[in-house]
């Protein structure tokens, strides 16, 4: 529990000014065994990988959690409360750490969200868990290049759209990226819809508070340790907002293609678009590398690399990307072996094409 509170809760709370997963979830877990076992499973997997031990303890806690969770998920709607949603969201984080991501808990999270649409604007732990689930859905959408599973109407009444603090601004960018993904990977979407969302993204960037500007920004250098720009942000919440903006710009650049789902084939020969993609991808990686306290952004950097790493053509840039993923493994214990293998295959394909 201490490891979770001190080292892992910020991954969930990064856009939450009230830090529900750090401050409320552990207290609720004292009286809620299903939540407690989810935390223990997630945290023990982290501890075991840090110490290179076996993972039997994490599996045992996970099984205990499922024994309590399954009746709630299969029961009446009244059983789907904020504790259940927070539990599934934590289990999804645990699931994302695995080499083989079966997305079982993502399916459970989106089922709860779409069954009870009030969570996204309910306030408290329920809404905090809903935003975490949305970011988890965004991660899978980026990698799979498929539409979101989450019904975004759940969030329309959230107070992040009327507040003016930095956390609400970052959450708005998360929501805008979700809208971009919903439209870009949906074959029946109108082009005008995506154009309108693109304008919203640029309006966010033009109107964001001055606190979202970098404290320090240096261009990338020639040496291996400087292959990405250096971009110091004020707080982790600012890193997330700006990083998600750059990811939205990548997806929008791909979506200029008449069929976004075939964008890879269409744009491999388009150097101008590829240059734009590479610029924004380097910014996504730079923000993660330059702001070590914002560990959550390492996960997003990893997903972005898996999706668009093929645009990194220079060998030293490729080595720097691998190094960043290995640093992510050291700091977070997320399995990156499959990600590195996927990148190497993409780069090998590019070499054979040339």
Automatic annotation (TrEMBL):
GO CC terms of this entry: nucleus
A biological process term (GO) from this entry: positive regulation of transcription by RNA polymerase II
Molecular function via GO: DNA-binding transcription factor activity; transcription cis-regulatory region binding
Keywords: Nucleus
Stated name of the protein: Zn(II)2Cys6 transcription factor
């Amino acid at each position: 529990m201490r490891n979770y509170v001190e080292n892992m809760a910020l991954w969930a709370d990064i856009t939450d000014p009230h830090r529900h997963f750090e401050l409320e979830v552990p207290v609720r877990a004292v009286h809620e065994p299903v939540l407690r076992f989810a935390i223990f499973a997630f945290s023990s997997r982290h501890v075991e990988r840090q110490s290179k031990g076996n993972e039997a303890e994490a599996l045992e806690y996970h099984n205990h959690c499922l024994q309590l969770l399954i009746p709630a998920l299969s029961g009446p709607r009244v059983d789907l409360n904020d504790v259940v949603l927070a539990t599934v969201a934590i289990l999804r984080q645990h699931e994302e750490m695995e080499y083989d991501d079966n997305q079982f808990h993502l399916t459970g999270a989106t089922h709860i969200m779409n069954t009870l649409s009030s969570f996204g604007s309910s306030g408290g732990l329920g809404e905090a868990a809903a935003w975490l689930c949305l970011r988890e859905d965004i991660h899978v959408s980026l990698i799979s290049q498929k539409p979101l599973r989450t019904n975004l109407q759940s969030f329309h009444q959230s107070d992040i759209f009327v507040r003016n603090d930095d956390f609400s601004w970052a959450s708005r960018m998360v929501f805008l990226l979700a809208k971009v993904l919903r439209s870009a990977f949906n074959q029946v979407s109108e082009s005008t819809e995506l154009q309108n969302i693109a304008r919203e993204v640029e309006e966010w960037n033009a109107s964001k508070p001055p606190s979202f500007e970098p404290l320090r920004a240096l261009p990338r250098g020639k040496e291996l340790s400087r292959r990405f720009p250096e971009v110091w942000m004020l707080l982790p919440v600012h890193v997330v907002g700006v990083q998600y903006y750059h990811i939205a710009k990548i997806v929008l650049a791909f979506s200029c293609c008449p069929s976004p789902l075939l964008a890879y084939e269409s744009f491999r020969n388009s150097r101008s678009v590829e240059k734009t993609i590479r610029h924004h991808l380097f910014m996504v990686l730079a923000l993660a590398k330059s702001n070590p306290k914002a560990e959550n952004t390492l996960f997003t950097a990893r997903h972005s690399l898996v999706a668009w790493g093929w645009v990194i053509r220079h060998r030293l840039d490729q080595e720097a990307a691998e190094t960043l993923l290995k640093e992510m493994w050291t700091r977070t214990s997320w399995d990156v072996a499959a990600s590195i293998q996927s990148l190497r295959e993409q780069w090998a394909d590019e070499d054979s094409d040339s």
